[in-house]
Specification:
By secondary structure, the chain is an alpha/beta fold. It folds into 4 domains: 14-107, OB fold (Dihydrolipoamide Acetyltransferase, E2P) (Beta Barrel); 112-266, Succinyl-CoA synthetase domains (Rossmann fold, 3-Layer(aba) Sandwich); 271-305; 357-397, no CATH class. The protein is built from 11 helices and 13 strands. The chain has a 5-stranded antiparallel beta sheet with strand order 3-2-1-4-5. Helix 4 packs parallel to helix 5. The chain is elongated, with a radius of gyration of 59 Å.
């Protein structure tokens, strides 16, 4: 036997390994540990139990000897949150590790509330509870997803009241633990499964109330964040008025009870039929009222003289029309007369200024054969052919040259 490092040629005996483990573990001493009691059995004055981590999947077994029972509350039970003063012990003979408990204390309700309020404030600061994130519930869901305990009163209340209100309503129910260490994870998984189902239009999470500590699973941070991420509207129906689990804050609608959830999610067919009949009655009344007003308006129009005796309007306007026609004819004649006088005056001036009038007085215009007018003797040398335009026509001529001087 050696206290050095063991080798294949010089291994440690089992007793030596166990002794070293015991000595090492003994140096740890006692420690306060917090967790949830998941097992609590009393046998022969000794308590055998299990303590689970509050957040992770980790569990230890512990024992409370009869000598320490006086320091243990008598009302401890499965599901309680506690802080435990324990010491790990390693038994050399059996090679087993045990946790010996010296004292157990309840985690005070004030501590739980303080933690819950800190988490509530943190999630609120992230906007998970904001009103603008709330989604409107469908008027008439085709299928409702329900997360609740198996064979629970909450399940029966939701199904019965929903079917009484709308017999054709359909459900997809997923059973999950609604308290204890498995509750938060099972509820989260059920919500995600329903959210992934395209036929589910709204989700109800229902439980028929309970003790504050039993409802802590509905304030689990992972559950709350999962609800904030889904796309399907969710209704929280925990049925706990004194304290509001965080699920109530993040849900799109909070119902006071499972029965209230069914009433809020599913419309009452009789009420809707009554509303339809009321709407029809209002429509009939409005249409009848409108038609009556229009009939009265038409009757009033028909009673007016211009409509009752339309020929009177024509007769009354006939004299005016005759007078206007006579006046129009007179004005047209005057306009034509004035225009004729002006035309004659212009025609006289035109005749006075016309070259033809000059020709008529005995003058003539001499032109060359190309049509140019002679303007001087140089334009018509001897032998040039000319055209002499007179008042009644033109005669041809041949220039004999200059015959005399100009006067």
């Amino acid at each position: 036997m050696t206290d050095g490092r063991p080798t294949a040629d010089s291994p440690w005996p089992v007793a030596l390994l166990n002794t070293k483990l015991r000595d090492y573990i003994d140096r740890l001493g006692t420690a306060w540990v917090e967790g949830e009691i998941t097992q609590w059995n009393v046998s022969g004055g000794t308590v055998y139990g299990k303590l689970k981590d509050l957040e992770q999947d980790s569990t230890i077994s512990f024992s409370v000897w009869s000598s320490a029972r006086s320091r243990v509350p008598t009302d401890l039970k499965q599901g309680d949150r506690v802080v435990v003063l324990l010491k790990p012990n390693f038994w050399v003979k059996a090679g087993s590790l045990s946790m010996q408990v010296y004292e157990i204390r309840h985690v005070g309700l004030g501590d739980l509330l303080e933690r819950l309020e800190r988490l509530r404030a943190q999630l609120a600061s992230e906007g998970l509870f904001a009103a603008e994130r709330k989604r409107r519930l469908p008027f008439l869901p085709g299928r409702i997803g329900l997360v609740t305990g198996k064979d629970s009163d909450a399940e029966k209340d939701v199904l019965r009241n929903a079917q009484l209100r709308w017999p054709a309503v359909q459900f997809r129910v997923i059973h999950a633990a609604v308290q204890g260490d498995r509750a938060a994870s099972e509820i989260t998984g059920a919500i995600r499964a329903l959210d992934a189902d395209p036929s589910v239009d709204v989700i109800i999470v229902a439980r028929g109330g309970g003790d504050f500590q039993n409802l802590l699973c509905f304030s689990d941070e992972k559950l709350i964040r999962a609800v904030a991420e889904i796309r399907t509207p969710l209704v929280s129906a925990i049925g706990h008025e004194a304290d509001r689990p965080l699920l109530d804050e993040v849900a799109d609608l909070r119902a006071s009870t499972p029965t209230d959830a069914a009433k809020r999610v599913v419309p009452d067919v009789s009420e809707e039929l009554a509303r339809v009949e009321q709407a029809r009655s209002r429509i009939r009344s409005r249409v009848t009222h409108t038609v009556r007003i229009e009939v009265e308006r038409i009757a009033m129009l028909r009673s007016r003289p211009v409509i009752a005796t339309p020929g009177e309007l024509v007769d009354r306007r006939a004299d005016d029309l005759t007078r206007h026609l006579a006046r129009g004819g007179e004005l047209v004649e005057r306009s034509i007369e004035r225009a004729s006088v002006a035309t004659e005056h212009l025609l006289g001036r035109l005749r006075t200024l016309s070259p033809q009038s000059t020709l008529a007085r005995g003058y003539a215009v001499a032109q060359l054969v190309d049509g140019r007018v002679l303007r001087g003797t140089a334009d018509a040398p001897a032998g040039a052919e000319l055209s002499i335009r007179l008042a009644d026509g033109a005669v041809g001529a041949v220039s004999t040259g200059v015959v005399g001087g100009a006067e």
